[in-house]
Specification:
This is Mannose-6-phosphate isomerase, cupin superfamily. The protein is built from two helices and nine strands; from the N terminus they run αβββββββββα. It is mainly beta and 129 residues long. The relative contact order is 0.27.
């Protein structure tokens, strides 16, 4: 069994992205978006995503709509939907997200967005087969 006090774990992580658990059908990931940073516009063609915000403030941009996000908010992004999440505040925007099926390598730790982008583009951040 893996057990997390998820908000506390997410709030303590300095990493842009850190995979905490990967199963056959889902994956748990924590993220920290720096002030003025963003996840980056993307589409997961075959993966649904649930994002829960722990601290900080931001803006969800999903399917052409924009909405403020605050601690305690949850956003569902269905597979095939263009989305981005932007930090609009002075402090890190911290969240945890569940992908179904997994989206990243089982042991992925990306210190920065630039590192995450580079590893994804080079094919070094692929989910388990």
């Amino acid at each position: 069994m893996e057990h997390f006090t998820i908000a506390a774990v997410a709030d303590k992580s300095p990493d842009f992205r850190r995979v905490l658990a990967t199963g056959k059908h889902t994956q748990l990931v924590i993220m920290t978006i720096p002030p003025k940073g963003e996840i980056g516009e993307e589409v997961h063609e075959t993966t649904d995503q649930l994002l829960t915000f722990v601290s900080g403030v931001g803006e969800a941009r999903v399917a052409g709509e924009k909405k403020a996000v605050n601690p305690g908010d949850l956003v569902f992004v269905p597979a095939g939907t263009k989305h981005n999440f932007v930090n609009t505040g002075p402090n890190p925007l911290v969240l945890y997200t569940v992908y179904g099926p997994p989206e990243h390598a089982a042991d992925a730790v990306h210190k920065t967005k630039e590192e995450a982008d580079r590893l994804e583009e080079s094919g070094q951040d692929e989910p388990p087969a």
